[in-house]
Amino acid sequence: MADNYETEKTFSRRGFLKMSGIATGSLVAGTYLGSLLDTNESEESPETETASEDSGQSNEQAAPQEDYTRAYKFFSKADDFKTIEAASERIFPEDDLGPGALALGVGWFIDHELAGGYGVNAREYMKGPFKEGTGFQGPQYPILRKDLYMEAIRVMNETAQENHEQLFYELEAEQQDEILTQLESDELTLRGAKASDFFEELRLATLSGVYSDPLYRGNKGMQGWEMKKFPGAHMSYINEVEQDGPVELETMPLSSHAESQE
Amino acid sequence: MARELEKTNVVVAGLGWAGSIVAAELSKDGKNVVGLERGEEKKTEDYLTAHDEYRFAVGHEMMQDLSRETLTYRNSTDEEALPMRRYGAFLIGTDVGGGGVHWNGDTWRYHPYDFEIKSMTDETYGEDKLTDDYLIQDWGITYEELEPYYLKYELNSGVSGEQNPMGPERREPYPTPPLKEVPVLTEYKEACERLGYQPFMIPASTISQQFVNPDGQTINACQYCGFCEKFGCEWGAKASPIVTTIPTAKETGNFELRTHANVVEIVKEDDEVTGVLYIDTLTQEEVFQPADVVVVTSHTTNNTKLLLHSDLGTPYNPETGEGSVGKNYCLHITPEVTGFFDKEFNTVTGAGALGICIDEFNNDNFDHTDLDFIHGANIALKQTGKRPIEQNTVPPGVKNWGAEFKKESIKAFTQSLSSHAQMITLPHRNNYLSLDPTYKDDYGRPLLRVTYDLTDHDRAAHDFIGQKIEEILTEMGAVETHRRELPEHFDIFPAHNDHIVGGTIIGADPETSVVNNYLQMWDEDNVFVIGGSNFPHNGGYNPTGTVGALAYRAADGIKMYLEDNRQLAEAGEVAGAN
Where is composition skewed (Acidic residues) in this entry (chain A) (predicted)? Predict the structure, then answer.
């Protein structure tokens, strides 16, 4: 355990320094970041540590751990989960630029979010009375997102069964698009909210799953970011800001600078 | 029954820029100051996790928790207002430092014209330039009078900038030189120059080099990490209360910071304000904090809400035009044009206030004789750092999901640029703040009700400015441009510009303003109200610099009041007028 602790600690500091740009010469004194740098300089030699760690780390990566986080936190049935996965894939499909929502883990992202504050509209005003509004007053629904998603999944699959005698995720892409278009244009009816508002919700959740930090379980392998040439959680671009054209840096996740006592 | 605490000299409700400036100035002067903040205490090291777009931008972590309190909204008085259930058009900061932590850092002085907008417009264009529906009025203070306070605020923050070629000449240069003129800005600048304009760098509180302010606080050099608006700065490189005024106040030993303290009422007993009532949000206990002076420095909307809940001042009545609390509520309507290019730009790096701009169409810098609007806008291109979840622009005609969307949105992430303007937005007799008759907050108090719609004036200015922006982007080489259009009515849900002002406005006339030129209430000598809520209209620049200047002015006023407990202004008197 003691060995693990040390490894984690030095690795995260190294990652942090790299991200923050301190290692490339921009020094910031008198801040928390500055004090972190001082600590590193006095307690250890970052350059030497970095070199030895890098070799150690590549050995570790040779035997990747199995991912135990791929279990349902919100959904209970595979059919429901796969319906959301399939719908998000149509919103952000795989193509020659790279993976789509499915491979990026957007289904897992949505599962995780629906199990938390997002699913119960935690930071939204949910007191009544609930009235429809003029269309310029924002969403006015009492339904919680977790219930709205289940309602939409029910309607999507019922529509798929009626028209094609299959579940939504079993349909051809064009058939799926047809149902999504019906949601988008309110040709289908949901209990609790306008279908078009659910569709917009799903669209935004899909984009969030594609492009949020992998800590949220989507954006697998940071490939969402890489397609967009977004280098992730770098803390400084002092050396890149004056360059013309996209920045080419190693993509960085937030986990690179989380400290833990595990 | 509320628990009563020991009396203090000054109690400050809300610790954003305005409250923390007052706290710093008064505690330095030897006064005991209690600062009440409904949110948590935050410091620079709390933002090491700042590079999380989902948490902070999509999840609005630094904003007021709407499940506890929000506002209601309608477009006109014949509609029923409904609650803003989720964030969209504007954001309300919370936690120590408030909006002064999650801001972008554009730090402007309003133009001399802004402070005398009514008399100067009348003089140049006649009294009939606008109809009586537009409640523009002079501020009761001139630019000259406010100038030293602007300088104080700029020095506190180490603002980086250069002389505006079309602005009043500065008596002192900016404390630090402008931020880097990066390639995108150079291209925009050259396009502006070809069109005959005089571009200059936006004054920025994301500063270009390390600066030690007059209070001994250090603001670090910006690292151009591209995470400013909606985020805290992990470098301490964006001037904010948590790196300047809060530490200054604490170092005096005269300042007590109390978090999770949500002020719900200014208490008046026997015709005199005696302190504030707040709720400890962790225990729900009611606490009474007595004070010689009460300073109201929460968000624009909450400043007005607090006065209305406390029955201070006279509520504005849109039918009669009488009363002033809640009057002159304005948003900042922001023309925006996106240009699509056939080349790739460096779009992910940047800083909140890294940008270049022109003032040719701002203030009264051009002739409005044949135009159906007054004033104008500062037009800018900024490189704030694009972030992938919220930046999914596609060219006009492309559907917002599916295969083409994916391809085009990824392409536009590096090949499109948006240029926008901070535009004059005028007060209108029908746009105002009042209390909602139906909806309540967590403490059982009526929510603030916003009645607001776009005005013909602002639509005219928006179209004019939008066209100017489009011309610049086309000159810059955009192969296609897309101008954002205004909806039929203002819609509270789509993201917009969160500069919202008015409600407790400054002025020389107690009948048409809430506070005098020291931000002291006309009706209550020991109550000062400071913030965007003081602005009688939204000018052609970002508002924070003016909030800062007004707060320093108010601090002087509070010191004077504590000496002889008097009303500091006479009706009709304009500070700084010759």
Answer: 40-52
